[in-house]
Amino acid sequence: MADSNVEQLFVINNFNDIELDHVQRAALYESMGASLTRATQADKLGASVDCIPPGKRAVPYHFHHAQEEMFIILNGSGTLRIADQMRPIKEGDVICIPAGGQYPHQIINTSDQLLRYISISTTDSPEICEYPDSNKYLAKSTHNGSSFRAINSLIENVDYWDNEP
Question: Taking every annotated instance into account, which residue ranges of this chain make up the domain Cupin type-2 (predicted)?
Answer without folding.
Answer: 51-120
